[in-house]
Amino acid sequence: MSPLPKALLFDVDGTLADTERDGHRVAFNRAFAEAGLDWVWDVPLYGELLAVTGGKERMRHYVARYRPDYHPPVDYDDLIVRLHAAKTRHYTALLAESGIPLRPGVRRLLDEARRRGVRLAIVTTTTPANVSALLRHALAPDAEQWFDVIAAGDVVAAKKPAPDIYHYVLRRLGLSPRQCVAFEDSENGLRAALAAGLATVVTVNEYTRTHDFRDAALVLDHLGEPGRPCRVLAGASVNGVAQIDLVALGELLAGR
Ligand code: XBP
Ligand code: MG
Questions:
Q1: Which residue, by CA, sits nearest to atom 10 of ligand 1?
Q2: The pTM is what?
């Protein structure tokens, strides 16, 4: 049997849970309405805006690209920071009220990793408070402690697709990329992980299924659960496994 990976590195939005359409998007719209702005991000538009990672960066991109009619105030930088803080407040409240479930197989794989001493890390563009809220509400009250490193938001200056946040996490873990597997759902995330030298498993979702995932180690519809097998969309043969487990991930690393 191939050695197991030493650590699993998880993206958050779209990978642990489908948080974008009914979470982040809704929270942005609530923050805009509260500030008296006529900015409304519908489902298709939000899909386009996801090309830019990071909420503050995404708002600036929207104004620059889609709102030539909007004249930014002199304190535009402060406005963006205030809107982003309000959006975080709405997003975390939304998770506490209605919750967003984890994607299939996520809890199973995290449980297996913890049982077998494989380390866990979070590698995300989103704000730390959003990660805490998701882990607490969707996973377990103490779930933040399951992760050796939680790297989020502005911890690095250049967000995905830059590899900086992956370099940061690998340094903190003291591991080489060849010992770890990354999990992502988007092209920007995949590019970041690949540029850091990581074998990457992509689980696609509604917003990302048409992205370019050609260099992923494996592309799946989801990680698979008992009674709900995963479908391999592209990449390494994992010999008909119905659920991605640590043995399959070890083989994936050995086959690189
Ligand atoms: C997803 C993102 C994030 C969220 C918004 O990042 O692009 O920007 O949509 O987060 P990942 P903030 O998939 O890497 O988790 O508003 O908190 O920036
Ligand atoms: Mg993502």
A1: 126
A2: 0.94
